Amino acid sequence: NVQLDTSYQFGDVWGWEAEFSGSAEEHIVYLIQLQEKDGSTNLVIDPFARESFGGEHWGRPIGFVVDEEDFRLSVISRPKSKVFHGMRRLPVLRQETPTDELTASRPHRPHHPLEQSVIYECHVRGMTNSPSISVSGSSQSGTYRGLVECIPYLKALGVTAIELLPVFDFDENERIISDAEIEHTVLNYWGYSPLLFFAPKQNYASDVENPVREFKAMVDKFHEADLEIWLDVVFNHTAEFGENGYADHFKLLAPDQWYLREKDGSYKN
């Protein structure tokens, strides 16, 4: 339980720092606790997290609850309802590689004139599950690493850029609601309701412990092949839904800054 220090306050912006022992693989998971004027508290996910845990396996609806007394963390199976009292993800913080060192070791990013560009839009899971792709049915199917195997096919088509459907963290189990007419659980396949804008989707990685590393490695392979990577981004709505939806971070931190709202406080988006 780390209290924020006013020496890390810059206007309305607060910061904090963590010390690591030196291991490159060391990481911590964390949550932010907000205290309202009436003394009530809420735990929220850091909306600027670069990595998250909790979405390791596609279609497995787990969640996290924190004991209010000792901050003990528990993993739960989320109930079959739209909203539950807990966290859908845990933000992850790792040691950062110096920017100059990281940039020096990565390939040059290609820039093709727009009028000469051939853009191929695809879904990470869908593309790598196609029977025509060599990794289909393997452990790399549905992953960033598996997408690298599609490069020869894309080059043969004359493609200059691949546009990926949402690859930021979203909750495919956002609507785990029982329906008498539907025998199976309805999942969000496409990802057009972001949970974390800056964290790559964890279960799109074959190495779920290092999704950021695998995503960067995929980007590097495409750039080495002179292929650009474009991202389909979604800023007009989120995984929190409307008034009766989830409250992960945006609603609790600064709803008027993250959302468009009517005069009565209801959400436009």
Search tags:
3-stranded antiparallel beta sheet; 17% helix; single chain; alpha+beta; 269 residues; TIM Barrel
Structure described in brief:
The protein is 17% helix and 20% strand. With 269 residues, the chain is α+β, with helices and mostly antiparallel strands.
Give a written overview of the molecule.
This protein has 269 residues and is of the alpha+beta class. The chain folds into 2 domains: 2-95 and 247-257, no CATH class; 101-231, Glycosidases (TIM Barrel, Alpha-Beta Barrel), CATH 3.20.20. 17% of the residues lie in helices and 20% in strands. The protein contains 7 helices and 14 strands. It has helices at residues 99-104, 124-128, 144-148, 151-157, 211-224, 250-253, 255-258, and strands at residues 9-10, 13-14, 27-29, 32-35, 41-44, 52-53, 62-66, 73-77, 90-94, 119-122, 161-164, 168-170, 194-200, 228-231. It has a 3-stranded antiparallel beta sheet with strand order 3-9-6, with no helix packed on it. The longest helix is centred in the C-terminal third of the chain and has 14 residues, at 211-224. The model has no long low-confidence stretch (mean pLDDT 87).
List the helices and strands and how they pair.
Blueprint (H helix, E strand, L loop, with lengths): L8 E2 L2 E2 L12 E3 L2 E4 L5 E4 L7 E2 L8 E5 L6 E5 L12 E5 L4 H6 L14 E4 L1 H5 L15 H5 L2 H7 L3 E4 L3 E3 L23 E7 L10 H14 L3 E4 L18 H4 L1 H4 L11
